[in-house]
Amino acid sequence: MPELNANIYTSIAPLLKQLQSNSKVATADEIATAVGRIFDDKLSPVQCSTLLSLLWGTGRDREPLVLARCGQSMREAAAQVDRKALRNVIQTQGRKEGSYHGGFCDLVGTGGDNWSTFNVSTTASILASSLLLLSKHGNRSSSSTSGSADFLQAIVPKGPAIEAVTAGVLPSIYEKSNYAFLFAPTFHPGMRHVAAIRKEMGIRTIFNLLGPLANPIEGSIEARVVGVFKEEMGPIFAEALKLSGARKGLVVCGVEQLDEISCAGRTNCWRLRERPNPAFRGPKNEEDDDFTTSDEEGEPRTLVDIDNFTLEPSDFGLQPHALSEVSPGKMPEENAELLMKLLRNELPRDHPVLEFVLLNTAALFAIAGICDADASNMGHGDDGKVIQDTGPGGLRWKEGVRRARWAVESGQALASLERYIEASHAATGQ
Question: What letters, b where the CB count within 10 A reaches 16 and e where it falls short, cover 170-191?
Fold first, then answer.
């Protein structure tokens, strides 16, 4: 039996005492530094579990700045992707349209809503990759019966080789496909040091919240939709994203405490809206600078406001569907079978799961800015009739649905998934 070497651990006893006696004394940076030591296996199991318990018990891990700084620590410890190669992907593969600049997008939820709905965000991300570059960050099941990784690997006759998509091969995946699934254990190997501790603790910790803030290519993410499991987390996540440098985003929570845009009724939304900064004195053309999500020197090019509004299926031109129609709690194999029927356009146009997916795909299209275009030339099957009606938040939600339906009916969503599957297997050398 291997012996534990106590010398490899760094004590955070002073921080733990601060959190216990007066939790507000500890700064966000101090907390993030301690969390960062977990990824290097520098915390003992006892101090690690104590830290996670105190953060949750004091509520410090539900503060925007703490989440933002801990998310940064997690990304810094992740496998690093060549940023120059990613910029090249955006320049050569990104489809600029409307106010979408061709950057990477993500559609992700915190999980933990206990609804066990169909894999909406993963399916919506596949549809969205027909027009956007998608970097879908996900993992195996934690709180549902079918996690995003389980779901994808259950595809018949052949699912993607998700573990083959590493930081080193990711840019080459995008040479063949607009879509890539970034499997969390592959990109965040340091999480293995806390896996057993989290399982034994059996309670929620900050790591149940950090996933949406830990995309390994965060600096290249242009737009995202993030679902949260409680309404009270909405403004917190919106602010955490803003502090992390995000400029386009939509945080959503269905009134049923659902971490998706609800197909049943009202959804609370917090939109990160970018606007020009009148104090900026740099180049007027963004292409004159490296495309990043922040500007640390001088005044930033843009400022970000957070707008709050609600959405309903009618804002998308769709009828509501009860959550019982989309939350059967099925296993990955059954959900994957439904996915392929959806992508092959074999479902009725008003099928509850299809419309649930269309809602969430449309939201990403709208937030990314592609729906702002006044002309449309998506390809075969596009009638070019842009729906210019705007809804809550001033965005074209119905145009997003039109584009999402085109992704299915044209076969482009299915083609995007198939290209990704082939590219992932090519990365294995098979």
Answer: bbebbebbbbbbbbbebbbebb
Name 267's bridge partners: 254, 311
Residue 233 C-beta-side C-alpha neighbours within 13 Å: 28
User: Is the whole model's pTM more than 0.90, yes or no?
Assistant: yes
What CA–CA distance (Å, rounded) separates 99 from 119? 28
The amino acid occupying position 406 is W
d(CA 57, CA 66): 14
Q: Over the stretch 222-252, which tens digit does the pLDDT of each residue have?
A: 999 999 999 999 999 999 999 999 999 999 9
Q: Cβ neighbours of residue 22 under 8 Å, at least 6 residues apart?
A: none
Instruction: Judge if the upstream peptide bond of residue 352 is cis by omega within 30 degrees of 0.
Output: no
- Asked whether the CA dihedral 304, 245, 68, 122 is positive or negative, the reply is positive
Q: In this structure, what is the dihedral angle of CA atoms 286, 292, 297, 303, given to the nearest 10 degrees?
A: 70
Between CA 350 and CA 355 the distance in angstroms is 6
- The Cα angle at residue 315 between residues 311 and 321, in degrees rounded to 5: 80
**How many degrees, rounded to 5, is the angle at CA 74 between CA 72 and CA 78?**
115
Strand partners, 58: none
Paired tokens of 359: 């809602």
Who has greater pLDDT, 117 or 338? 338
Contact 183, 138 (CB under 8 A): yes
CA count, 13 A, side-chain hemisphere, 196: 5
Report how far residue 404's alpha carbon sits from residue 407's, in angstroms, rounded to the nearest whole number.
Answer: 5
